[in-house]
Amino acid sequence: MKHFLNTQDWSRTELDAVLADAARFKREKIGDALKGKSIALVFFNPSMRTRTSFELGAFQLGGHAVVLAPGKDAWPIEFDLGTVMDGDTEEHIAEVAQVLSRYVDLIGVRAFPKFVDWASDREDKVLKGFAKYATVPVINMETITHPCQELAHALALQEHFGTTDLRGKKYVLTWTYHPKALNTAVANSALTIATRMGMDVTLLCPTADYLLDERYMGWAAQNVAENGGSLQVSHDIDSAYAGADVVYAKSWGALPFFGNWEPEKPIRDQYKHFIVDERKMALTNNGVFSHCLPLRRNIKATDAVMDAPYCIAVNEAENRLHVQKAVMAALANQ
Ligand code: CP
C-alpha cells in the first residue's frame, strides 16, 4: 500500500502520471474515480486552500470527505508510545488511525512543527504515526514538507511554459521576510520539486543560518545528481534574480534558533528588503512569480508583484484541487 508522504518517495514516472491525471481532471471537472469512497481530513492547524480543495475534490469525484480537528472538535491524540496518558490527550494514534481506517479509504494529515525543538519536529511524528497505524493510504496535507503544494506548483509551471520538461529553467527559491518565524515545509518542498524537475536552482537566503535542513538540502543534491540541473546557494539578491525564469518566495525561521526565537527576531528584521518587488522581478528573464499562499502583501511581496500578469500564485492555488484529485484517485484505486 502506497502513501503520499513526500514526493521524494515517488518515482518520477509516478509523479509524471499524477501530473498528467491532474491536467485531465482540470479539463474534466466531474468524475467517479472516488465513487463510494471517503477521506478523513485531519487538521491540527488552520487551512483555507487545503481544506477547501480536498473536500471539493473528493465531492467532484463522487467521494465524501470528513474533516476532523483533534483537540477542537475531536479528541486530543497522544503520539508517543509508553506514555502514561494522565495529561490532556484522550486517545492514542494507534487506535485513532486504525479506527479511521475502518471508516474511510484515505486519511489526510496536516500537522505543522511545534517550533520548540527541531530535532523532534524533523521526525514528523504525527504524519509517521498515522502512516504506521493506518491500514489505508495517508496523504501529507503539510507537515514538514508540503508535497501537494509541490505538485500544484509543478503543474502551474508546466502550464506557464507550455511543456512538461522544465530542464534548463533558472529557478530561484527566495527567502522573504515575515514578522513571525514560519515553517520550512514549503521551502523544503520547493527545493525538492524544483531539483526533481531538473531545473537550475538557486536558494537565496540572507545568511547560512537560513539554509534548510540537511535532509532537504541532501534530497536536492541527490536530485541534481540523478536528474541533471544544478543547485547553488546565494546570499546576493541581484545576482540570484538575474536571468531567473521562476521566482518562488517563502519565509521561514532560521533552524539554529528553533525553539529560541527571541534572538532570531532582530536578525530576521534586518532582512525586510528581501521582499519580492518590481525592481527585483525586472532583473529576471521575464520570469514568473509564485507563492503557496497565504501571503502578507507588502511584507513578502508587493501589491504590484501580486497583481502583475507574471504572478501565477492563484493558478497554483487552483491546481491544488486538480493534483489532489489525481493523488486521491491514484491512492484509493491502487
Ligand atoms: N497553501 C496552503 O496549503 O494553503 P492553506 O494553508 O490555506 O491550506
From TrEMBL:
The record marks 90 as: Key residue in conferring substrate specificity for N-acetyl-L-ornithine versus N-succinyl-L-ornithine. Residues 184-330 form the Aspartate/ornithine carbamoyltransferase Asp/Orn-binding domain. The modification N6-carboxylysine is found at residue 300. It comes from the Bacteria. Pathway: Amino-acid biosynthesis; L-arginine biosynthesis. Pfam families: OTCace, OTCace_N. Belongs to the aspartate/ornithine carbamoyltransferase superfamily. AOTCase family. Carbamoyl phosphate binds at residues 47-50, 75, 110, 146-149, 292-293, 320. This is N-acetylornithine carbamoyltransferase. Its EC number is 2.1.3.9. N(2)-acetyl-L-ornithine binds at residues 142, 250, 293. Keywords: Amino-acid biosynthesis, Arginine biosynthesis, Cytoplasm, Transferase. Its main location: cytoplasm. Catalyzes the transfer of the carbamoyl group from carbamoyl phosphate to the delta-amino group of N(2)-acetyl-L-ornithine to produce N(2)-acetyl-L-citrulline. This is a step in an alternative arginine biosynthesis pathway. Homotrimer. SUPFAM superfamilies: Aspartate/ornithine carbamoyltransferase. HAMAP family: AOTCase. It is found in: Cytoplasm. The gene is argF'. It is an enzyme of class 2 (transferase). Residues 2-159 form the Aspartate/ornithine carbamoyltransferase carbamoyl-P binding domain. It catalyses: N(2)-acetyl-L-ornithine + carbamoyl phosphate = N(2)-acetyl-L-citrulline + phosphate + H(+).
